[in-house]
Amino acid sequence: MRRFSILFFAVFFSTAVHAASPSDASIEELLNSMHAEKIMDLMLPAIDKSMHQSMAMATEGKTLSAKQQQILDASTAKMMALMKDEMSWDKMHPMYVQIYRESFTQEEIDGLVAFYKSPAGVAYINKMPAVMQKTMGLMQTRMAEMIPKMKAAIQQAVEDVQNSK
């Protein structure tokens, strides 16, 4: 029985050690290796561009008066300022640390740090802004194609509800 207890505790503790939560220092090293702050900063111009395109799509190509355009531009600027503030690294950083701590083991964080410091990882980091920009562009195209279909489906649903009385 004693051997079984020793074996049980050895397995239990080795598993617990093996699946240890990562340290904040290792998460910081990973975020630095990933250039997470820089990537967040690079996303904001893409979001700004997307927001302007969305506003243009919302007006459906109608010509706006100078005053209407000014109001639209001011609204877009306010939303972008809010987004920049809410998605600032200072506000997002603690969330990233928490998510990585809850999602990865120390061993996994160590492996990710090794990857992001490798030539393949460095290439991945360097090419991600272009990948994200291309993705956003293609998504805008898809959204432009999808919005009229969504509007038609919504309109049909409203008509169906009205006709069901």
Tell me about this structure.
- With 165 residues, this protein is mainly α.
- It has a domain at 22-128.
- It is built from seven helices and no strands.
- Helix 3 (36-58) packs parallel to helix 7 (119-163).
- The longest helix has 45 residues, at 119-163.
- The protein is elongated and about 75 Å long.
- Residues 90-148 form the DUF2059 domain.
- InterPro entries: DUF2059.
- Keywords: Signal.
- This is DUF2059 domain-containing protein.
- Residues 1-19 form the signal peptide.
Concise overview:
By secondary structure, this protein is mainly α. The chain has helices at residues 2-18, 24-34, 36-58, 66-86, 89-103, 106-117, 119-163.
Task: Please specify the SSE layout and strand pairing.
Elements: H1 2-18, H2 24-34, H3 36-58, H4 66-86, H5 89-103, H6 106-117, H7 119-163
Helix pairs in contact: 2-5, 2-6, 3-4, 3-7, 6-7
- Largest sheet composition: none
What overall form do the CA principal axes indicate? Answer: elongated
**N- to C-terminal separation?**
75 Å
Strand content: under 5%
User: What average pLDDT do the residues reach?
Assistant: 85
Number of helices: 7
Give the beta-strand count: 0
**Share of helical residues:** over 70%
The ordered string of helix (H) and strand (E) elements is: HHHHHHH
* Uncertain segments: none
Structural class: mainly alpha
CA-atom Rg in angstroms: 25 Å
